[in-house]
Design brief:
- By secondary structure, this protein is α+β, with helices and mostly antiparallel strands.
- The protein has nine helices and four strands.
- A four-stranded mixed β-sheet has the order 2-1-3-4, with helices on one face.
- The protein binds glutathione (GSH).
- Glutathione (GSH) binds next to helix 3.
Length: 225
């Protein structure tokens, strides 16, 4: 049982403004908060993620990973699913309800997140600005297509299934990466996202992620000059 282990999540001690509140350890923190499972945080100094210590926990040199006693896991989806299996808040007890939640968790990661991540790649990280400008409309259309499907699913309902599950947690974590102006064209999706992030567990996880960023802002600002 996770509750019987000492848990620690990896996270960054600082990230640039565009990433603050979006780093993927937030999903894991949120799931642990919903489940009421205590945990600690191993803060990585920004820039050290590709070093041997983190590579031993996360083969791609990323966050998050979760240390659980002697064991360890990486990939936010896998970790969040592992946590959900020990939480009535995140998963119902019936097989059909659990299957539906797992389907939505994968839908968030495999169907909705890819075009959203691609847009971030084009707008923030791409060095080929001409290619980024040319491809942007196609990727925005791909995001809108996914949002339209979610709009249909969510019209007249509070959650993706008949109650809040880990599928909603992951879908909301992914939807937070979409520009609010774009989401504004999808009222059911916008209201759904607001409902998800109004949960106390989310608000605590977010505040905990942001705290070290504020504390370390001045140090990183002076390093970058
Ligand atoms: N598929 C991975 C993605 C993890 C990921 O993209 N992590 C980012 C932060 S949100 C990261 O650590 N980036 C730093 C880097 O790649 O150097 C997961 O969901 O855990």
């Amino acid at each position: 049982m996770l509750r019987d282990c000492e848990l620690s999540v990896t996270a960054f001690d600082w990230v640039p403004g565009f990433a603050q509140g979006l780093v993927r350890d937030l999903r894991v923190r949120w799931a642990l908060e919903e489940a009421g499972i205590p945990y600690g945080v191993d803060l990585l100094n920004q820039g050290t993620q590709g070093g041997a210590a983190n590579l031993a926990r996360q083969p791609f040199g990323q966050v998050p990973s979760l240390r659980m006693g002697d064991g360890s896991m990486f990939e936010s989806g896998a970790i969040v699913w592992r946590i959900a299996q020990e939480s009535d808040v995140l998963l119902p007890s019936d097989a059909a309800g659990r299957d539906a939640a797992l389907s939505w968790l994968f839908a968030a990661l495999n169907t909705v997140e890819p075009p959203i991540s691609m847009l971030a790649q084009l707008e923030i990280f791409s060095t080929d600005k001409e290619a980024a400008t040319r491809l942007r409309p196609e990727i925005v259309d791909a995001i809108r297509l996914r949002l339209s499907a979610l709009e249909r699913e969510l019209s007249g309902r509070d959650w993706l299934t008949d109650r809040f599950t880990v599928g909603d947690l992951m879908m909301a974590a992914v939807l937070r990466m979409v520009d609010r102006d774009m989401l504004g064209n999808f009222p059911a999706v916008s209201a759904y996202l607001d409902r998800c992030i109004d949960r106390p567990a989310f608000r605590k996880a977010l505040a905990d992620q942001l705290r070290p960023f504020a504390q370390n802002e001045a140090r990183y600002a002076s390093m970058m000059q």
